[in-house]
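Quick check before the chapter quiz. The format below is the same one you will see on the exam, so make sure you can read both the input and the output lines.
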Amino acid sequence: MSALRRFLAAACAFALFWLALGAAAVSVAAHGGKTDLRLDILTHFAPLWLGASALPLFFALFIHSRKVKFAIGVPALVGVIAAGSLILPELRRPLSPRIAADAPHQIKLIQFNTWGRNDEIDRTAQWIADQNAGIVVIEEATVAIREAILARRAYHASCRRCSVMIFSRAPPIFTAPPPLPEPWPGLPRARATFAPADGGFTVIGVHYTWPTDDDVQKRQGLQLAGSIARLDHRRLILAGDFNSTPWSFSRRREDALFGLERRTRALFSWPAARFTRFRIRTPMPFMAIDHVYAGGDWRTVSVKRGPKLGSDHYPVVVRLALIPR
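Here is the expected output.
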């Protein structure tokens, strides 16, 4: 082997070792998120830690030197196990049986953070209108997107200048942000309740802050749980941008706290556009932060991700069927 080849092999092994060691360290530390909100931030990136551990583990299989193979393979395996154990509960989470596509009393719901910097408002609004959904829950809503949607579809809008809006084909009998038990921190939210003639159910839309904002997101979750506890859970639909992934301990706690079934499972919805000040573009989304919950009177027909539009989020399209009491 030439000196250059030996140098390149050593450099690659060195890089793989530190990648494996770093990913393992972060993955193991993320498990501390069960008791520490700061460490729980790491859990949101579990798929990235898993990939960063799996890559050196794969290459370690082809390394001839036992010492080098061991040095890279052990931390890589630790990282795969630690990161995988964060994701596995979501993949194994029991879901209620799906109902047939031709089931009666269906409703199509779109959950979509349309983004305040959306530069394709007309295209976004046209796609929403073309879906002809019964309910559309939008975060980071603007007057421009509201008017663009209403110009294309005769929807009823829950608000004119709210950051969270609910659009519906049927006229709601009540629209207002659900009351919160504490005045701070505020949670952007919307609520629409529909008459028995239209199924008799309530939809709540929310937009959480980032998990990096101290414990604000935790308090928002407690506020929301206290608010929906006053409502009939059986016919409740909760949808929004939770800025929280299903492999985080905070999302698992809220899943149990809400008393609703989250119908989205490991559905990656962010980013759909360039992000950070460095304008980074990724080939696929790696954060599952847009979720839809529903009560026990709803059965899931389908759950899918919508197309890339002018937002940094992908829309989530869910079909639910109401089971008569």
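If your answer matched, good. The first helix runs from residue 3 to 30.
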